[in-house]
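Let us work through a complete example step by step.
Step 1: write down the sequence.
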Amino acid sequence: MNNLRYLIKRSVQAALADKSFFAGVVVTMGITIGVFLVVLTLGFYMLLKPLSYPQQDELFVVDYQRINQSGEAETSFFLYPAAEALYRNIQSAKDIGVKAQSMLFFSKEVLTSEPLQPNLATVYTTASTADILGIPMAKGQWFAPAELGQRVPGAVITYQVWAEQFSLREDILGQKLVVNGVSHPVIGVIQADFVAPQLAEVGLTTQLWLPWDFNNSEYKEDWRNVEGKLFYLIKTPAASTGQLSVVLSAMANEMFRKMTIDNQHFVGWSADIEITPLRSKLVAGNMTTVIFLLAGGLGLLLIATSNITNLFISRVVSKHKQLAIAATLGAKKKHLWLQMFSETLVLMLASSAVAILIALLGFGLIQRFFSTQLARAHEISFDWMTLCSALLVAVLLAFIISLLSIRIVNYRQLSQSLKSSGKGVGVQISSGVRNALLVSQISVAVVLIFCSASLIKNAATTLQRHVGFDSTNVLRLEFRIATLDWQGWDTYAPKVTEFRDKLAALPEVEAVTFARSPLEDIYQFALTYSGDGKRYYPFHRNVDHNYLDVVGQRLLAGQGFALKDVQSRTNVAMVSATFAEQLGHGDITSVIGKTLAIDSIPPATIIGVVEDLVVPSKAEIPPRFYVPNGGSALWLMLKLKPGTVVTREQVTALMRDTNNQFALTNFSSLQADVDRANFTHLVTLTVAGSLAIFTLLLAFLGLFGIISYGVKSRTTEFNIKMAIGAKYNNIFNETVRENISILMIGASLGTIFIIVCLYFYYDLLSVYISISSMYMYAITIVAVFAVLILSSSISMRAIKKNSIVNGLKGIAA
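Step 2: predict the structure and record it as tokens.
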């Protein structure tokens, strides 16, 4: 124990003896380990950490696929009636292995019973959801079991809603919440620590739970259009999912064929069921991001470790006399390693302490800025996994660095060095070690800088693209008719039009259009083009005659909709440039006058071609077509006059004055929507740029340290050469040539690694790789080459400044 205490004390004193060395190591490794801990913890939460639900390995999401005549999957979302039919079939079936099942319909609802009419993220669900997800109750109870269609009102709210909307009032149970004209008594409050699965939208935290039968889906009897807000959960043993998917597919396919037998469009189609683990479903869209972040964090750690190893090796060289004394007095090589390990461990533990602070800052930034982009980001926090990882990394790095450092020590040479007065005997770093360090630094730097440059190029290209419309001074509104006693659209359309007219009459408003945001692609239809008789699957949008003027989307050919087209719903259509190129095989004007037929609807004549919309979230531009909407809808956009403002309160007041059943569900700036859509690309640009700069900085420091040591160890050799007539430039060029050969080896290894990754993960990486990637590769090599030349130039400067005589005497300039 005394020996251990002495070793620790001595190690701390040795680490603190050189304060600049201590600070350099702790800051460099602290930042690097901190970044690594952030991405490692994020990867752990997304890929490995169990969900907070009981028996999470038995929780699965059921996906409903419609397979067309060609055997291709058209959609993976449920048809609403298909979901209910499957639910009933499973209820009545026996011995198929489903322990529990649940349907969830995600929505955003307005509490019209509250003065401020808050908009809450809502899930309509069935009673068994509480058992499947293990929902803990702080007060009251969950919904009682009920058959579909019984319509038993009730509401369960989260603890946060109880606190924010009702100030934790004790009599919350029994309070009435009015949603869509139905009064729901509050029957329960969920505990604060429960995290609902974010299936419909990353970052959307459920606030209100209502019974399934009260959802307001538009497709309750529709066997044509999918319901993208509906999700289906089951609880079943993992081993039975293969057989279960076959059984459920048979059920789904039989019902689909039966209900679409009279629809010619679906002749030859079938339905199929896929069963996906809930955990995989939650993180499916973030796998590429996590892999890139983990690779980047690990790469930085490797470069930083290489740099610090070089510093420690240089330190060993400078302490060779101390090591020689220890060896002469009987210290074995393992004792020297233990001393070096303990000193290194002190530095790595100090670095890990700084890393934990960096990680805490990183976790806060992720929760604040990335909770809507990264699945499960809202759960990330400092825990035992992060702490244990920090300690493990510290110990592992200390072991590796001390082991590599001690390997350069020739123990037999040490024990003889004092006897020979140290003349001609010392600890030297072999050229093989130096070259290996150079190669590793360069290869890792090439990979990281190439990946960063590719990400930067991809993100910058996306951010610079013209989105195809003008979002300046445009507001986007969405509202709903808060009732389940639907009287038909013809009953509400006049009031909706009246609301539009009141908005248009505001002095701040320049124009109003009934249309969704240009950023939204929701509905996709199958249609037949008269030009070639083929079927296409473009996205569909309903717009009116003011749409192009409000959003500033250009008409490229033909003409747009006129007022009469909208009022009488004339069978006309506009198509996007991409769709026109597909239809006309590159000639967009040739589609004018041709028709598009959608099932039994009369064909629509193409009268115009409009500019493409470039949605930031889509890697490719999909085909789109536009038809008149009849002059009324539950979504509008307002074009404001320059320098004017319309507030939410103004809109809400006009809405109530028109119809007290109108409930505002969205009020946002179109420019703010564009900024949110671009946020991921902006973050990618920032992170990738920072990674590239940090990589270059670490590479420079590492290469400079290694090359500088190499130059110092050959100072006598260089001065002898100059003494017998060699020119400095020749020596410099010779040194650079030697380093360039090492550069080529390192670059080759990095290139091979990139090629192997592309070969095995091409589908994952192809979106980031293109012909321009060759330019990125060239830039990468040039950047690393520049760092190498700069390091060589600075390292050789001392020889150039110093006189040959002083150099031969070992006197520094």
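Step 3: interpret the result. Residues 69-268 form one domain.
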